[in-house]
Design goal:
- It contains seven helices and no strands.
- It is mainly α.
- The longest helix has 19 residues.
- The chain is elongated and about 65 Å long.
- Pfam families: DDE_Tnp_IS66, DDE_Tnp_IS66_C.
- InterPro entries: IS66_C, Transposase-related, Transposase_IS66_central.
- This is Transposase.
Length: about 140
């Protein structure tokens, strides 16, 4: 297969290859056929990064964000209870989202906590780390 000049071409070549694999007379239980069928069923989802620049081609940032939590998994046995674990997971998610968006978590949290009570429900998305603009004093 010739190297693609851009992502769109490469993705099209990948799905053409999947189509070719499915059309061959291989057993439907073959792992290769099953993988190709799965990829074709997920074509729209697997192609989102081509039209939305905010979507990464892979999930490496997500994997890297959860690595410290996975490494410390045994430590989480001591969060107290299931509810404490859920709250810890929410905070970890907010910290990782701020980090991914180059937002100072402490500054964001202080600002958002002061604005939550006065922000309209329709505008709550503006307080998410990727949309956040600090309030002016």
């Amino acid at each position: 297969m010739k190297a693609a000049g851009n992502w769109v071409e490469l993705v099209e070549q990948f799905f053409a290859l999947c189509d070719d694999i499915v059309r061959r007379r291989l057993p439907p239980t073959s792992m290769l056929v099953r993988a190709a069928v799965y990829a074709l069923k997920q074509r729209q989802e697997l192609s989102v990064f081509l039209i939305d620049p905010r979507v990464n081609i892979d999930n490496n940032p997500a994997e890297n964000a959860i690595r410290p939590w996975a490494l410390g998994r045994k430590n989480w046995l001591f969060v107290g209870n299931e509810r404490g674990g859920e709250k810890s997971a929410i905070i970890a998610s907010l910290v990782a989202t701020c980090k991914d968006n180059k937002v100072d978590f402490k500054a964001w949290l202080e600002d958002v906590l002061t604005r939550l009570g006065t922000t309209r429900h329709d505008d709550i998305d503006s307080l998410l780390p990727h949309n956040w603009t600090p309030a002016r004093n």
